[in-house]
Amino acid sequence: MGAIERSGYRFEPEFSVIEQNGAIHVYQEGEFLEEIKFTFSGKYPLENKIEELVDEYCLKRGL
Fold first, then answer.
1. How many CA atoms lie within 13 A of 20 on its CB side?
2. Can you give the pLDDT of all 63 residues of the chain as single tens digits?
C-alpha cells in the first residue's frame, strides 16, 4: 500500500511482519507531524484497517 493524501496531509504506512506492528507517518507540506501506531495479525495489515485509522485521524482533527 502506498501513501494516502487527504486535505493537504500525507499518510505513509509502514509495518513489520515479524513484529506484527506498524505505523502511519503523518506529514503536512513535507513536514513530519506525528505517528499513528497500530498492530495487526497475518502477513500484512489490511488496507481497510489503515484507511480506517486515517479516517479516524482526519475526523478527530476536522480535516
1. 3
2. 689 999 899 999 999 999 999 999 999 999 999 999 999 998 889 889 999 999 999 999 888
